[in-house]
Amino acid sequence: MKRYKLIAGLIAWVGLLLCAPLQAQTLKNRNYETQAYVKSDGRITDRNYSTIGYVKSDGRVTDRNYSTVGYVKDDGRIVDRNYSTVAYIRDDGRVTDRNYSTIGYVKDDGRITDRNYTTIGYGKGMTRTQLGALFLLNKIF
Questions:
Q1: Per residue in 40-99, pLDDT tens?
Q2: What is the three-class DSSP state of 51?
Q3: Residue 31 placed within a domain
Q4: Number of domains making up the chain
Q5: What pairing do the DSSP bridges indicate for beta strands 85-89 and 34-39?
Q6: Which is it for strands 60-63 and 68-72: parallel, antiparallel or unpaired?
């Protein structure tokens, strides 16, 4: 009996390892309909699972053809392919444009709002880099 439990445990563990790359963070719109997925391997897909881009571990964001569209810096700065700042995602969740005007907020519960606090989407559990990548790919704000 112990042997079967051990084998079952190993199978479950291997299954978790194999499925881990398929896990994704989900971006939803204000109606809670899925808009995009950010896979753990950095692939970004639309709601139909078509690849629309990639976010690399260094913060580089590419389109589906691997052309760089911009970067998300460690400090939350979002820059285009020419390194011009286009927005910031602040530590406090405030999202500003290049002139520091507030364009929205990312709340602790994952809710994304515009500057008037109207909910425009949900990105619970997403990192600042993932949100910045979605910004660069015109999925939010």
A1: 999 999 999 999 999 999 999 999 999 999 999 999 999 999 999 999 999 999 999 999
A2: strand
A3: yes
A4: 1
A5: unpaired
A6: antiparallel
